[in-house]
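Re: [ENG-882] Designed sequences occasionally contain unexpected residues at chain ends

Forwarding the minimal case from QA. C-alpha coordinates:
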Protein backbone atom coordinates (compact mmCIF):
# COMPACT_ATOMS: atom_id res chain seq x y z
CA UNK A 1 0.00 0.00 0.00
CA UNK A 2 2.80 2.44 0.89
CA UNK A 3 4.44 1.66 -2.45
CA UNK A 4 1.21 2.45 -4.30
CA UNK A 5 0.78 5.72 -2.40
CA UNK A 6 4.39 6.69 -3.16
CA UNK A 7 3.88 6.00 -6.86
CA UNK A 8 0.66 8.06 -6.86
CA UNK A 9 2.35 10.98 -5.10
CA UNK A 10 5.29 10.86 -7.50
CA UNK A 11 2.91 10.87 -10.46
CA UNK A 12 0.99 13.82 -8.97
CA UNK A 13 4.07 15.94 -8.45
CA UNK A 14 5.38 15.10 -11.93
CA UNK A 15 2.05 16.08 -13.47
CA UNK A 16 1.98 19.31 -11.43
CA UNK A 17 5.54 20.21 -12.43
CA UNK A 18 4.94 19.54 -16.11
CA UNK A 19 1.72 21.55 -15.98
CA UNK A 20 3.49 24.50 -14.34
CA UNK A 21 6.31 24.39 -16.86
CA UNK A 22 3.87 24.15 -19.73
CA UNK A 23 1.90 27.12 -18.40
CA UNK A 24 5.05 29.20 -18.05
CA UNK A 25 6.34 28.28 -21.50
CA UNK A 26 2.98 28.93 -23.15
CA UNK A 27 2.92 32.58 -21.98
CA UNK A 28 2.51 34.71 -25.08
CA UNK A 29 2.12 38.42 -25.68
CA UNK A 30 -0.20 39.11 -28.60
CA UNK A 31 -0.28 42.43 -30.48
CA UNK A 32 -2.46 43.47 -33.41
CA UNK A 33 -2.69 46.56 -35.60
CA UNK A 34 -0.67 49.11 -37.56
CA UNK A 35 1.34 47.77 -40.50
CA UNK A 36 3.48 50.92 -40.29
CA UNK A 37 4.75 49.76 -36.90
CA UNK A 38 6.11 46.49 -38.30
CA UNK A 39 9.77 47.49 -38.10
CA UNK A 40 9.50 48.94 -34.60
CA UNK A 41 7.38 46.13 -33.16
CA UNK A 42 9.46 43.47 -34.89
CA UNK A 43 12.69 44.70 -33.32
CA UNK A 44 11.10 45.28 -29.90
CA UNK A 45 9.42 41.86 -29.97
CA UNK A 46 12.67 40.10 -30.83
CA UNK A 47 14.58 41.91 -28.08
CA UNK A 48 11.79 41.17 -25.60
CA UNK A 49 11.77 37.44 -26.42
CA UNK A 50 15.54 37.30 -26.02
CA UNK A 51 15.45 39.15 -22.70
CA UNK A 52 12.51 37.37 -21.06
CA UNK A 53 12.07 34.12 -22.97
CA UNK A 54 8.40 34.94 -23.51
CA UNK A 55 6.75 34.35 -26.89
CA UNK A 56 5.63 37.46 -28.78
CA UNK A 57 3.25 37.71 -31.74
CA UNK A 58 2.32 40.58 -34.07
CA UNK A 59 -0.66 40.57 -36.41
CA UNK A 60 -0.35 43.38 -39.03
CA UNK A 61 -4.00 44.21 -39.71
CA UNK A 62 -4.00 48.03 -39.70
CA UNK A 63 -4.62 50.58 -36.94
CA UNK A 64 -8.43 50.43 -37.01
CA UNK A 65 -8.46 46.65 -36.82
CA UNK A 66 -5.89 46.62 -34.02
CA UNK A 67 -7.93 49.08 -31.97
CA UNK A 68 -11.03 46.92 -32.48
CA UNK A 69 -9.09 43.76 -31.58
CA UNK A 70 -7.96 45.05 -28.20
CA UNK A 71 -11.44 46.44 -27.52
CA UNK A 72 -12.93 42.99 -28.13
CA UNK A 73 -10.22 41.23 -26.13
CA UNK A 74 -8.71 39.42 -29.11
CA UNK A 75 -5.18 40.63 -28.34
CA UNK A 76 -3.25 41.94 -25.35
CA UNK A 77 -2.10 45.25 -26.85
CA UNK A 78 -3.36 47.13 -29.90
CA UNK A 79 -1.02 49.05 -32.19
CA UNK A 80 -2.08 52.31 -33.79
CA UNK A 81 -0.20 54.80 -35.95
CA UNK A 82 -2.60 57.56 -34.95
CA UNK A 83 -3.98 58.95 -31.72
CA UNK A 84 -7.19 57.47 -30.40
CA UNK A 85 -10.37 59.32 -31.27
CA UNK A 86 -12.63 60.71 -28.55
CA UNK A 87 -15.22 57.99 -29.12
CA UNK A 88 -12.58 55.27 -28.80
CA UNK A 89 -11.41 56.68 -25.48
CA UNK A 90 -15.06 56.85 -24.39
CA UNK A 91 -15.29 53.12 -25.15
CA UNK A 92 -12.71 52.47 -22.43
CA UNK A 93 -9.46 52.48 -24.39
CA UNK A 94 -6.20 54.21 -23.42
CA UNK A 95 -3.23 55.23 -25.52
CA UNK A 96 0.46 55.36 -24.67
CA UNK A 97 2.71 57.03 -27.22
CA UNK A 98 5.69 54.80 -27.92
CA UNK A 99 7.43 56.85 -30.61
CA UNK A 100 6.92 59.40 -33.36
CA UNK A 101 7.26 58.58 -37.04
CA UNK A 102 7.53 60.64 -40.18
CA UNK A 103 5.09 59.91 -42.99
CA UNK A 104 7.31 60.02 -46.04
CA UNK A 105 5.84 61.19 -49.34
CA UNK A 106 7.37 58.77 -51.83
CA UNK A 107 7.86 58.58 -55.59
CA UNK A 108 9.66 56.25 -57.96
CA UNK A 109 13.45 56.81 -58.07
CA UNK A 110 13.12 57.67 -61.79
CA UNK A 111 10.94 60.68 -60.98
CA UNK A 112 12.96 63.93 -61.27
CA UNK A 113 10.79 65.74 -58.69
CA UNK A 114 12.52 65.90 -55.31
CA UNK A 115 10.62 68.51 -53.27
CA UNK A 116 6.97 69.53 -52.80
CA UNK A 117 5.31 71.69 -50.18
CA UNK A 118 2.25 70.58 -48.19
CA UNK A 119 -0.14 72.72 -50.25
CA UNK A 120 1.07 71.19 -53.52
CA UNK A 121 0.86 67.66 -52.09
CA UNK A 122 -2.73 68.38 -51.06
CA UNK A 123 -3.58 69.61 -54.56
CA UNK A 124 -2.14 66.42 -56.06
CA UNK A 125 -4.15 64.21 -53.75
CA UNK A 126 -7.41 66.09 -54.26
CA UNK A 127 -7.03 66.07 -58.05
CA UNK A 128 -6.36 69.78 -58.58
CA UNK A 129 -2.91 68.92 -59.95
CA UNK A 130 -2.96 65.86 -62.22
CA UNK A 131 0.23 65.95 -64.29
CA UNK A 132 3.85 65.81 -63.14
CA UNK A 133 4.74 68.60 -65.57
CA UNK A 134 2.73 70.98 -63.37
CA UNK A 135 5.26 70.52 -60.56
CA UNK A 136 8.49 70.37 -62.56
CA UNK A 137 8.38 66.73 -63.59
CA UNK A 138 7.79 64.81 -66.81
CA UNK A 139 4.66 65.12 -68.93
CA UNK A 140 2.83 62.19 -67.34
CA UNK A 141 -0.38 61.67 -65.42
CA UNK A 142 0.13 61.43 -61.66
CA UNK A 143 -0.96 58.07 -60.26
CA UNK A 144 -2.17 58.73 -56.72
CA UNK A 145 -1.63 55.86 -54.29
CA UNK A 146 -2.81 55.74 -50.67
CA UNK A 147 -3.99 53.55 -47.83
CA UNK A 148 -7.39 52.09 -47.08
CA UNK A 149 -10.00 53.73 -44.84
CA UNK A 150 -9.19 53.03 -41.20
CA UNK A 151 -5.42 53.18 -41.75
CA UNK A 152 -3.55 55.25 -39.18
CA UNK A 153 -1.11 56.36 -41.86
CA UNK A 154 -3.94 57.62 -44.05
CA UNK A 155 -5.58 59.37 -41.11
CA UNK A 156 -2.32 61.13 -40.22
CA UNK A 157 -1.49 62.10 -43.79
CA UNK A 158 -4.96 63.45 -44.59
CA UNK A 159 -5.23 65.34 -41.29
CA UNK A 160 -1.91 67.11 -41.78
CA UNK A 161 -2.49 67.92 -45.45
CA UNK A 162 -6.12 68.90 -44.89
CA UNK A 163 -7.41 66.43 -47.45
CA UNK A 164 -9.88 64.40 -45.35
CA UNK A 165 -12.66 62.99 -47.53
CA UNK A 166 -11.19 64.79 -50.55
CA UNK A 167 -8.47 62.47 -51.84
CA UNK A 168 -8.90 60.98 -55.29
CA UNK A 169 -6.95 57.75 -55.07
CA UNK A 170 -6.18 55.56 -58.04
CA UNK A 171 -5.49 52.74 -55.60
CA UNK A 172 -6.19 52.28 -51.88
CA UNK A 173 -3.90 49.60 -50.49
CA UNK A 174 -4.05 47.67 -47.24
CA UNK A 175 -0.47 47.84 -46.04
CA UNK A 176 2.61 50.07 -45.97
CA UNK A 177 4.54 47.41 -47.87
CA UNK A 178 1.96 47.34 -50.67
CA UNK A 179 2.19 51.13 -51.11
CA UNK A 180 5.99 51.03 -51.27
CA UNK A 181 5.99 48.13 -53.74
CA UNK A 182 3.40 49.78 -56.00
CA UNK A 183 5.27 53.11 -56.12
CA UNK A 184 8.58 51.33 -56.73
CA UNK A 185 7.07 49.68 -59.83
CA UNK A 186 5.39 52.75 -61.35
CA UNK A 187 7.49 55.78 -62.44
CA UNK A 188 4.40 58.02 -62.39
CA UNK A 189 3.11 57.07 -58.92
CA UNK A 190 3.11 59.02 -55.68
CA UNK A 191 2.34 57.54 -52.27
CA UNK A 192 2.92 57.93 -48.57
CA UNK A 193 4.43 55.49 -46.10
CA UNK A 194 6.01 55.21 -42.70
CA UNK A 195 9.54 56.60 -42.77
CA UNK A 196 10.62 53.57 -40.75
CA UNK A 197 9.66 51.30 -43.66
CA UNK A 198 11.07 53.29 -46.60
CA UNK A 199 13.96 51.61 -48.40
CA UNK A 200 15.98 52.00 -51.58
CA UNK A 201 13.12 51.01 -53.89
CA UNK A 202 11.45 54.42 -53.60
CA UNK A 203 12.53 58.04 -53.16
CA UNK A 204 11.33 60.12 -50.21
CA UNK A 205 10.57 63.73 -51.18
CA UNK A 206 11.57 66.66 -49.06
CA UNK A 207 8.53 68.64 -47.91
CA UNK A 208 9.02 72.39 -47.98
CA UNK A 209 12.75 71.77 -48.28
CA UNK A 210 12.96 69.40 -45.30
CA UNK A 211 13.81 65.73 -45.80
CA UNK A 212 12.19 63.22 -43.42
CA UNK A 213 14.71 61.81 -40.93
CA UNK A 214 14.92 60.93 -37.27
CA UNK A 215 16.41 64.36 -36.59
CA UNK A 216 13.80 66.38 -38.51
CA UNK A 217 10.94 64.39 -36.99
CA UNK A 218 12.37 64.89 -33.51
CA UNK A 219 12.81 68.66 -33.89
CA UNK A 220 9.44 69.04 -35.63
CA UNK A 221 10.79 70.63 -38.81
CA UNK A 222 9.43 67.75 -40.89
CA UNK A 223 5.73 68.45 -40.53
CA UNK A 224 4.13 65.26 -41.86
CA UNK A 225 4.49 63.05 -38.80
CA UNK A 226 2.33 61.07 -36.39
CA UNK A 227 2.61 58.96 -33.23
CA UNK A 228 3.07 55.21 -32.81
CA UNK A 229 0.67 54.21 -30.04
CA UNK A 230 0.16 51.22 -27.73
CA UNK A 231 -3.57 50.72 -27.05
CA UNK A 232 -4.91 49.03 -23.90
CA UNK A 233 -8.27 48.59 -22.16
CA UNK A 234 -9.00 50.65 -19.06
CA UNK A 235 -11.05 47.94 -17.33
CA UNK A 236 -8.82 44.98 -18.16
CA UNK A 237 -5.51 44.33 -16.40
CA UNK A 238 -2.72 43.15 -18.66
CA UNK A 239 -1.40 39.64 -18.14
CA UNK A 240 1.95 39.38 -16.38
CA UNK A 241 3.69 38.69 -19.70
CA UNK A 242 1.92 41.55 -21.52
CA UNK A 243 2.73 43.96 -18.70
CA UNK A 244 6.39 42.99 -18.96
CA UNK A 245 6.36 43.80 -22.66
CA UNK A 246 4.54 47.09 -22.09
CA UNK A 247 7.05 48.14 -19.43
CA UNK A 248 9.97 47.07 -21.61
CA UNK A 249 8.70 48.83 -24.77
CA UNK A 250 8.10 52.12 -22.95
CA UNK A 251 11.38 52.10 -21.01
CA UNK A 252 14.48 54.11 -21.82
CA UNK A 253 16.23 50.81 -22.59
CA UNK A 254 13.95 50.30 -25.60
CA UNK A 255 14.94 53.61 -27.21
CA UNK A 256 17.92 52.06 -29.00
CA UNK A 257 15.68 49.50 -30.70
CA UNK A 258 13.08 52.09 -31.71
CA UNK A 259 15.79 54.31 -33.22
CA UNK A 260 17.25 51.28 -35.01
CA UNK A 261 13.85 50.77 -36.64
CA UNK A 262 13.86 54.36 -37.96
CA UNK A 263 11.35 55.91 -35.55
CA UNK A 264 11.91 58.53 -32.83
CA UNK A 265 11.47 57.25 -29.26
CA UNK A 266 9.63 59.46 -26.78
CA UNK A 267 11.72 58.14 -23.86
Amino acid sequence: MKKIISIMLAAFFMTFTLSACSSQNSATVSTDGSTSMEEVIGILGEAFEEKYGISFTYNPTGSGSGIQAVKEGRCDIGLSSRNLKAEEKADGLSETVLANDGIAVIVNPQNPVSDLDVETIAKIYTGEITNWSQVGGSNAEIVVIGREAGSGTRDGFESITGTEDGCKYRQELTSTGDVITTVSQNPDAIGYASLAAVGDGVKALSVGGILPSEGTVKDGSYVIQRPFVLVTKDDSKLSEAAQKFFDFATSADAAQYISQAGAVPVN
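QA comment: On inspection the terminal residues look reasonable. The chain is about 40% helix and 25% strand. Proposing we downgrade this to a documentation issue.
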